[in-house]
């Protein structure tokens, strides 16, 4: 995940036993946020939710294509 000029990476295992991972972040100013999901052996989605849990953006990755969301987001929690 890249927020403005700062980068933070998360690594883990996605499987049918571990179907969902959630990461929360808060922006104090408007910034560009990049979310990437890559190097998969199956299909998975990356979803950006607002503070209420509503879907703002989503992208799906597969073993042949990565998923990315790059958006200019306002201050708030995601």
Please describe what this structure looks like.
The chain is mainly beta. The protein has no helices and eight strands. It has strands spanning 2-3, 6-7, 26-27, 31-37, 44-49, 55-61, 67-73, 76-77. The strands form three sheets. A four-stranded antiparallel beta sheet has the order 2-1-4-7, with no helix packed on it. A two-stranded antiparallel sheet has the order 3-8. A two-stranded antiparallel ribbon has the order 5-6. A hairpin with a 2-residue loop joins strand 1 (2-3) and strand 2. The mean pLDDT is 83.
Query: What is the alpha-carbon Rg in Å?
Result: 13 Å
The total beta strand count reads 8
- Spans of at least 5 consecutive residues with low confidence: none
Mean pLDDT, as a whole number?
A: 83
Largest sheet: 4 strands, antiparallel
Task: Please trace the helix and strand order, writing H or E for each element.
Answer: EEEEEEEE
Q: Gist?
A:
This protein is mainly β. The chain has no helices and 8 strands. The chain starts with a strand and ends with a strand.
List keywords for this structure.
78 residues, mainly beta, four-stranded antiparallel beta sheet, two-stranded antiparallel sheet, globular
List the helices and strands and how they pair.
Blueprint: E1 2-3, E2 6-7, E3 26-27, E4 31-37, E5 44-49, E6 55-61, E7 67-73, E8 76-77
Antiparallel strand pairs: 1-2, 1-4, 3-8, 4-7, 5-6
């Amino acid at each position: 995940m890249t927020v403005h000029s700062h980068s933070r990476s998360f690594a883990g295992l996605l499987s049918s036993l571990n179907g969902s991972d959630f990461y929360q972040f808060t922006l104090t100013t408007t910034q560009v946020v990049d979310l990437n999901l890559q190097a998969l052996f199956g299909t998975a989605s990356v979803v950006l939710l607002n503070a209420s849990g509503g879907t703002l953006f989503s992208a799906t990755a597969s073993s042949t294509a990565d998923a990315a969301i790059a958006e200019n987001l306002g201050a708030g929690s995601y």
